[in-house]
C-alpha cells in the first residue's frame, strides 16, 4: 500500500473535501470526477448540497481510478468496472478470512 493510500485511509470518513479539493488531492480533473460519479464509482456524501462533498475514502478511490486510467490506459467505463471488481475482490477476501476464522483450530 502506498503512502497516499494510507493517508486516505487515515482520513477515513471524518475529513470532508469539496470537489475542488478532491481534484487537487487526487490528481483527477473535475470532468474525471464527474464521470466517476456518473458511473456510480463515487457518490457524494450529501447529494442535496449545493456543491458535492466527499470523504477520505472517496479520495482513495479517486486516486486509484486515476492510476488505473493512466497506467492501463482505460476509458472511464473501464476504470469504473475495474474499481467495482477490486471492491468485489476485497469483499470476497474478507468473507474468506471470516470463514477461516470460524474453522476449528487444527493444532
Largest pleated sheet: 2 strands, antiparallel
- Total of DSSP H or I helical runs spanning 4+ residues: 5
Provide the β-strand percentage band.
Answer: 5-15%
CATH class: Mainly Alpha
Helix fraction, binned, reads 55-70%
How are the strands of the largest sheet arranged? 1-2
Q: Please mark out the parts with pLDDT under 50 across 5 or more consecutive residues, or reply none.
A: none
What is the mean pLDDT? 86
Q: H/E element string?
A: HEHHEHH
Task: Please state the second-level CATH architecture.
Answer: Orthogonal Bundle
Radius of gyration over C-alpha positions, nearest whole angstrom = 16 Å
How many beta strands in the DSSP annotation? Answer: 2
- Secondary-structure-based class equals mainly alpha
Can you tag this structure with a few keywords?
single chain, 107 residues, mainly alpha, Multidrug-efflux Transporter Regulator, Chain: A, Domain 2, two-stranded antiparallel ribbon, 5 helices, 2 strands, 64% helix, globular
Summarize the structure.
The chain has 107 residues and is mainly α. It contains five helices and two strands.
Amino acid at each position: 500500500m502506498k503512502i497516499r493510500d494510507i493517508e486516505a485511509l487515515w482520513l477515513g470518513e471524518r475529513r470532508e473535501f469539496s470537489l475542488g479539493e478532491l481534484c487537487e488531492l487526487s490528481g483527477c480533473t473535475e470532468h474525471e470526477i464527474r464521470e466517476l460519479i456518473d458511473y456510480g464509482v463515487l457518490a457524494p456524501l450529501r447529494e442535496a448540497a449545493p456543491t458535492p462533498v466527499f470523504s477520505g475514502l472517496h479520495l482513495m478511490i479517486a486516486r486509484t481510478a486515476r492510476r488505473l486510467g493512466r497506467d492501463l490506459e482505460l476509458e472511464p467505463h473501464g476504470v469504473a468496472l475495474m474499481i467495482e471488481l477490486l471492491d468485489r475482490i476485497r469483499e470476497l477476501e474478507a468473507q474468506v478470512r471470516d470463514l477461516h476464522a470460524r474453522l476449528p483450530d487444527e493444532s
